[in-house]
Amino acid sequence: MRAAPRALALAAALALAAGLIGLRTLAPHFTIDRPPEDQPVAAAFALTALAGCAFALMTAALLRAPAAGRFFAALVALGLALRILFFGSQPILEDDWRRYLWEGAAVAAGVDPFDHPPSDGFLHDAFGDLKAPSQDPSVETLRRIGASRPDYPELVNHPYLTSVYPPPAQASFALAHVIAPFSLDAWRLVLLLVEGGTLFLMLRALAAFGAPASLSLLYWLNPLVIAQTFSTAHMDALIAGPLVAAFMAARAGRPGLAGAALGLAAGVKLWPILIAPILFRRFLSRPAALARAVAALAVSSALLLAPLLLAAAASDSGLAAYAAEWRRGAFLFVLMERIAALAFTDAEAVARFSAAGLCAAAALVLSVRPDAEAKRAPARALTLVMIILALSPTAYPWYAIWAAALLPLAPSLGAAMLAAGGAIYLLRFPNDLTGAEPPFLLLSAQIALPLAVHLIMRRRKSA
């Protein structure tokens, strides 16, 4: 690795590490009993922005000259150390992990989280009276769990809704519970094991694509991945390994394995099904291979998603509520909704259907050009993911892990900038105290600027 890029990569890696270490020192100030106005949100914003900007510089340096040898090994060790750093810490401004731990306990006890919301574990009714015994054994099981950990059912977010997380995620929650009941660090350990497997797959995939191993650092040292997975303990990192495996299988010309891996990714989060036209493009001239890929995707995704989808018609379905009502940090969706309001009474529903249709159309457009050996599939999929983030009514920063999973196979400075854009999301918390909406242009920069840079550079590269 040339001296100047190596020095820049090292300085940037140390700067992003400093940002994450700073976040770790702030973590004790974000406990649930601390008034929101006393939590150091501004400092967390600054440190997240520092780490994200440093990561963009590191990306630029690694694209100029790959890291190798001891330097590469040192950066891999740094990524591992930064993950371990957050063990024992208080998650910053997020509480999804409480639902993970509750649902892990429920699944481990044999209760269906798609049929029973956390509120079934409440011991008292709305008036504070003790509930009468239930004839449903699952409800009684949840109440026993609630009696053992009375802080959990009440503190789980949206306790009257059933789970929105498909069975593969539920299995990982249950594994954490088996390791140590209601332990956030047990959940982090599961995530660390998953991340180790993801790194292994990325190194194999990069070799298959003829790319340097150091590009794996675009995921392994991504501060957004590290913070959102090990500080706030979100589960989206579970999707990275299956996605990488799907592209590696497509590259190797193995349609059945590619379809099955994509089905597993869809079993973690629904959206990877949209990648199918891009991933299977190389098999279009081989009908038998295409049929195997589609069949493997259909069977694997159907088996994994069936429990979640079959429960979606229930009045307390978390999936139905998410699809119809959830919104946070939206960019283009807000504009679409305003345009729809000019002609429709239910502008939000029209905007949601329009966004879904545009995402599907983008997937088809991106798959039009030939891709005989799946060389272009990761770059096209990354573009699709960024379009999905821009159109989605929910643009949580941990959703950017979806793009980060593809970044080593399709390096993009624009996608790397998502790590810094995630800091903007933190600005919503002071506004939550006043009830005011954050400035649209400021929030839109979370995805707008990275998407613009990504599209411009892709256009130049293909020109």
Terminal CA distance reads 28 Å
Q: For the CA atoms, what is the radius of gyration?
A: 22 Å
Elements, N to C (H/E): HHHHHHHHHHHHHHHHHHHHHHHH
Quick one: overall form?
A: globular
Mean pLDDT: 92
Structural domain tally: 2
Count every helix, treating DSSP H or I runs of 4 or more residues as helices. Answer: 24
Major β-sheet annotation: none
- Please give the share of residues in helix: 55-70%
DSSP summary, beta strand count: 0
Q: Could you list the spans in which at least 5 consecutive residues all have pLDDT below 50?
A: none
Measured by DSSP, the beta-strand proportion falls in under 5%
Structural category: mainly alpha
Give the helix/strand layout.
Layout (H helix, E strand, L loop, with lengths): L2 H24 L14 H24 L4 H17 L10 H13 L28 H12 L2 H5 L11 H13 L4 H25 L8 H4 L2 H9 L8 H12 L3 H14 L7 H4 L7 H24 L7 H8 L6 H9 L6 H20 L10 H15 L9 H4 L8 H4 L1 H8 L2 H7 L5 H5 L3 H15 L1
Helix pairs in contact: 1-2, 1-3, 1-10, 2-21, 3-10, 4-7, 7-8, 8-11, 11-12, 12-14, 16-17, 17-18, 18-24
